[in-house]
Design goal:
mainly alpha; single chain; 3 helices
Amino acid sequence: MTLPRIAAPLAALPHMPLDRLWTLWDQHFACRPQRVNRRYLETRLA
């Protein structure tokens, strides 16, 4: 995978709606965390 293909999605995380972040979370992780804030989602998805 080339750098631009990785960099663009990472740069988009802070601008995504929260429901989209949760959709990505559900695609990559088996369960949701109990306590969370937006920054936590962004850093873990990155």
